[in-house]
DNA sequence: TGTGGGTTTATTGTATACAATTCCTTCTCG
DNA sequence: CGAGAAGGAATTGTATACAATAAACCCACA
């Protein structure tokens, strides 16, 4: 997309991710257009893209809403991620070369440093974690898999809440990355797959532990609105 | 989408699936608009949807082309399908109820009849096969999984060529469905997953056997064009 | 009350004109 | 000849006006 459409996409996306627009809220094309400073045409484009990223949903009559996630939905996504990223790790292990491995090592070193500083630099952690997983996906070199995963890993429910991870959990993350690196070094696809799958599943439980209180409130709130 | 956009989507889609538009061919919005009898606006909508279905691709400057699939791409898709449909089968087995099981049985009976008639009714087979898999996906009740799979199972490379299946392969398909039904009846998720995964992988090899000659020609043709 | 039908308003869908970009041809200069 | 720039043609992007549809409202009537 070109300038206006991109701006609309970025603006709306950040409004959703930041929580400025709350889950379940209806999105009006004209209002968004005004806020983004563009016409409705690029806004409609942006909404299409956000829909395929599962950040917004449409009802049966084409009205658009900020995606609303139940805890079950989140569990669903993590399970699929565990499966697909596990597969990606397997492919990556089989196709790993020295240069890529070196980049992954550097990435995880930086990540560990971010985690070990006090206080831990969460934003940097997120950035490097993202890069680490992106590198693996690149080495896996399956464009279709990349497409499928892209829609799963860009979910705001996850990013918005990563700040609740405990220091311990952050350290464990980088340790799991180390184990992945070991599997990659041996080109052991099955090992890499197991580690990655576990890595994602642990992340899910960290999320669920931090949020089951919150989601209970959300559920009540949702009920009230209905 | 409403009428015009749907018509554009259906029209363009069928032109791609039927081969009227060949892989790699550029799609011009205005030309498509004229052919569909609508303006460019709904055509652009349709192209977005076709893009997310992976039926068309865009280059770096926003030009749109009919998706072009190498044999590796096809292998890639089948592998992902095997994984995701296997997972769907596992979930479905765990959540299966008598009513759904009965519908699946009826569906496969009809499918078997279509296969056993002479000559086998391939179109009916495809229709019922689709329905069978859709029912399983429905019982699995994971909307996210359904979304991901939707983009994989609607691929024209597969449908356009299903007519090359041998009678023997068609019969084997319905036999594998029977085995799935057995796994469902016992609510054995792991069994269902294995059978489904194998089912898809066998389909891939049937495809590859029928097409490795053809794809060699395709490759030469593609080279000539380049 | 509260329920059905019709009217009004809000919102999305479509067509069209024009702007911006990309692509292709051609010409110049080395 | 070849590389690269300039101009023109083809294509996509954006804004805007209007049409179609869905939601909200209101009021008569039971």
Arrangement of strands in the largest sheet of chain A: 1-3-2
Count of distinct strands of chain A: 3
Helix content of chain A: over 70%
Instruction: Characterize the main sheet of chain A.
Output: 3 strands, antiparallel
- Largest protein interface, residues of each chain: A-B, 23 and 23 residues
Q: What structural category do the secondary elements of chain A indicate?
A: mainly alpha
Q: How many helices of chain A does DSSP assign? A: 10
- As residue ranges, the low-confidence spans of chain A are 213-226
Question: What distance lies between the first and last C-alpha atoms of chain A, to the nearest angstrom?
Answer: 37 Å
* Helix and strand run of chain A: HEHHEEHHHHHHH
